[in-house]
Amino acid sequence: MVNFSDLNFIFRFLPVFLVAFYLTPVRFRTWTLLFGSLLFYAVGDLRMFPALLAAVIVNFLFAKAQFGEKSKSLLFFVLAIDAGMLIEFKILGQYVDKSLLPIGISFYIFKMISYQMDVYRGKVEKDASFVDVAAYFCMFPQVVSGPIMRFDKYLENTALREKTSLSQIAESIEDGLRFFVAGLAMKVLLADHLAMLWKDIGTIGYESISTPLAWLGAVTYSLELYFDFWGYSLMAAGIGVMIGFPFITNFDHPYGSGSVSEFYRRWHATLGSWFRDYIYIPLGGSRKGEARTVFNLLVVWLVTGFWHGITLNFIIWGLSLCFLIICERLFVLKRFPAPLSKFVGKVNVLILIPLTWVVFAISDFDMLGTYFSRLFPFTGSGIAVNQGDFLKNIGIYWTVLLPSLILLIPKVYDFWVNRRNRWIFNILWLILFWACIYSLAGAAGNPFMYFKF
Q: How far apart are alpha carbons 43 and 12 in whole angstroms?
């Protein structure tokens, strides 16, 4: 049920929770949010449920101590506990048993770290209650795959603190549903079907695909990850809107970026800002010269690679992106004329980023080497292998690839957002919703790709 595209979540948990939430008197709604979130998590990962509870209690108690008297040693101690917990479970999940990696641990631990640092910095002005802190850490729209909301944004929820009229409730739920259905369609109708093409390429065998199909595969996997995570982000934000939270933009048309660094500010916006505020800037950011900037970027991207997984391909993925960003900052932007630097930035985003996703996707080094030998057939048969496979797969999957490419254009999505209240879109979205349900009813279910991080 932790999957937002699960029929049990859509038709059972979510509507029951919304009814219970808004029937609860305002002063007790935070408790409803907390209990609902704990139930949501326990159903999805009962075995690791105690780890979440322990982390919540420990972080609340340490933060409470900081309100009495600020202590840097106390801060470092609790940060070490949080980071150590994340590292330990990552290692256990990778090398012992995958089920030992708690669902969403990266996201709720990052929330806890940001809360501890914000308390120490004085950004959390008063000693928050246990129920508020626990609900913030555990809230079900974000506990599995983010976004990594800050505590001050949590406090902006009006439904938790003010009496809401029926019209306000209806408006929040209706608008949240629009974003939820948009995200559901991206996940179910696009990402899950793009996954079939990527899986077909793996079934054929990387040694047997032509160069055009290899490039189509790189594009396909990039689009699959794109719509999987954008879909999740819209669904999570939509659920938040339904229960009174402001809409959180966690995915902002990254392929419209002009550089790799801008791409990742847009790709997972709340994660990127978290790394900036709690790792990059505390290390000195770009204020201490080029050598220190390079070192700080290297630390950030090593942590980013490890955060996604502790296999070597994730570390190489992070380092390759770090290399591209350093080249852009220190060479391209400084030494190239503006038109040329913009061109290079676009090439990096549209060509090199999909290649880094291939590294991200394939953990076996022999298979990764084979795939790149098909992408760049400098030796051997290369492009001559199965020359008809590209057109064959285009013929099968064009109905998914074409709308995916169209939706990469920011103005297409913006057109809907600016007109989403119109009755014609409500009808279209109703049709879209039932198309998704029809597709889900005949499928085994495909979890969001970021669930494993």
A: 13
Burial class of residue 438 in the structure, from the number of CB atoms within 10 Å of its CB (0-12 exposed, 13-18 middle, 19+ buried): exposed
**94-118, pLDDT tens digit by residue?**
888 888 889 999 999 999 999 999 9
3-state secondary structure of 41: helix
Instruction: Give catalytic residue positions.
Output: 308
Q: Are 157 and 198 in contact (CB under 8 A)?
A: no
pLDDT at residue 172 tops 60: yes
Determine the pLDDT at residue 452.
55
Structure tokens at 350: 């549209």
| pLDDT digits 0-9 by tens, 304-361 | 988 888 888 999 999 999 999 999 888 877 777 778 888 888 999 999 999 999 999 9
154-173 b/e with 16+ CB inside 10 Å = b?
A: beebebbeeebeeeebeebb
Cis bond leading into 15, ω under 30°?
A: no
Tokens at residue 96, please?
A: 């012992």
In whole angstroms, what is the distance from residue 67 CA to residue 186 CA? Answer: 43
Distance CA 199, CA 446 (A): 13
Look at the block and give the residue holding tokens 């930035």: 345
